[in-house]
Amino acid sequence: MKQNSSVSRYRFAIWLSFLFIVTNTLSRIVLTVMASEKNSLSFIDLGYSFISGIIYDLATLSYVLIPVLLWLTLIPLSWRKNNIWKVSGWIFSIMAAYSLVILAVSEWVFWDEFESRFNFIAVDYLVYTNEVIGNIRQSYPLLIWLSLCALTSLVLVVLINRLPFLIRWGHIPRTQMLSGLIIAQLLVNLGLSGQAKDLRENRYANELAGSGLYSLFYAFNNNELNYRHFYQTEDDSSANAIVREQLSTPDAHFTSTSGTDIWRDIKHSGAERRLNVVLISVESLSADYLGKFGNSKSLTPNLDQLADTGMLFTRLYATGNRTVRGLEALSLAVPPTPGQSIVRRPDNESLFSLASVFNSKGYSSSFLYGGYGTFDNMNYFFASNGYNVKDRLELKSDQITHENVWGVADEDLYGMALRDFDQSSQKGKPFFAHIMTTSNHRPYTFPENRIDMPTGSRAAAVKYTDWAIGNFIKQASKHSWYNDTVFVIVADHCSSSAGKTDLPVERYHIPLIVWSPAHLPAQKVDRLMSQADIAPTLLGLLNFSYKSNFMGADVFATPKGPERAFIATYQGLGYLTPDRLVILRPRKEPEVQMLENAFAKTAKSNAELVKEAIAWYQFSSDAYSEGRMKLVH
């Protein structure tokens, strides 16, 4: 017994705990430096983020230690003098260190892209490993990074193993060690959650106050949120009345008196414009990339020219910060709902969509994507809601000039579109097409000799994206259907939605250009609007009469337009008006912010405005969960 007692039972657990705290603290320091490059952090913010961060690191560690302590408790001490055990211990130590170093570096890469700890986006990316790993390989010197991580791991193992307290602390009795773990788990489960750390006004401080691994698993468990379970609600009749009132326009007649039914007959006098429609949703095109919105780097000469000769909507806001959110709003004309986008949810078939309206008018409707449409469930969603789907698989090798892990170059996608439009035109049918681009996405690569900038940067990708759109319009002008076509150019979301606050309004501002010189006059439209308003506004410009179940509004249908927009993360739901922003958060009181010169500050609560915000998000969430967005009614 004395011989065995000299063996430190929990030495590895103490070693792993020290390594875990060291790597997470070093990671937090690096993330703090990265955050400070874009936002100043006060000493209070810094102090809070590190103190809270240690608490979350310890909480995460308590989960990591569960299998480790159980294993070390059950294995007899006599086994540990075996050379096989010792060699295995070294191998396992190096693997553990390597995993923690890789985790830290992954957080830095994720922060560089999203300015956030791991969240639901990271959870989604775990599903699409091919695209994500390919993106990393094409964006970073992966072999060098992995080699440096391996060297760092080896150094950490050697250095930490020299610490004398490992053996001493490793002799803690089993009852004390296991009791401590049980107490820690009770405290963690009773006192912590993903939002418990969000006590500072500075969003960056709150992000730094968390732990990457904890945030990842929290996002995994909370990827879909039931609105009524997590958010403040209003009386159903009151909420329904608010939504129906705001959807009441001179051109609309409700077909039912039921408060939950928003089906309307939209009637326009005069002939319908049966024009072809090409809707291009551009990857990550923030408004501030355009010269029309003040950019001085000449990145978008073609878009700026289209804005001069077409309809430029200057106050449009994206509903979310991911492509699927933009696709949801553009196709279904609905506000965002908490959790996952409808594009990725179950039971999302046969919904009332923009394609269903065009199909009822005899159009051929399609969704064209430059990548593999299995990503984010895009192919299934669009194919199940009235669109003919074509993606990267439709292209032959000689039709691709350049490709990366996210998709083919935009010019190749537009080439596929031109061929598809010719086929529809030859059948004598008008067509509606929704094109989703990919080139303005990391790793930002595209064909050479297109623009005067090398590949690899966001600015260059924006300029290539602009070139490809200009070239597409030029090529389209050679086709018979061109003069009878409306081109709609909009972003899916901004290049980044991160900012000092949860919902920085300026990071949701995107451009919208509707261009058809032969049919639509050039004008600037300054009305506040949401991506959810584009579909009904477009149908209004075509003078279509149709049955509508859209929650978006035609901004020209009333003299003032909707004067509200919806912006959201997967948990924070924003209701934007010209001077205020209402934010709804899970199990928190609604917050009202005043917007002055693009800066937000907390304002006195506005009961009526809060009620409006709740009404919209409550109504839209219920409408989906209860099947009221379905085409059949």
UniProtKB/TrEMBL annotation:
Domain Sulfatase N-terminal: 276-543
Keywords in alphabetical order: Cell membrane, Manganese, Membrane, Metal-binding, Transmembrane, Transmembrane helix
Catalytic residue list: 323
Residues reported to bind substrate: 441
Chief place of localization: membrane
Superkingdom of origin: Bacteria
GO molecular-function term, one example from the UniProt record: metal ion binding
Membrane topology: Multi-pass membrane protein
GO cellular component term of the entry, any: plasma membrane
Residues that coordinate or bind Mn(2+): 283, 323, 492-493
Positions of transmembrane segments: 12-34, 54-77, 89-111, 142-165, 177-196
Subcellular location: Cell membrane
Protein name (record): Sulfatase
Provenance organism: Tolumonas auensis (strain DSM 9187 / NBRC 110442 / TA 4)
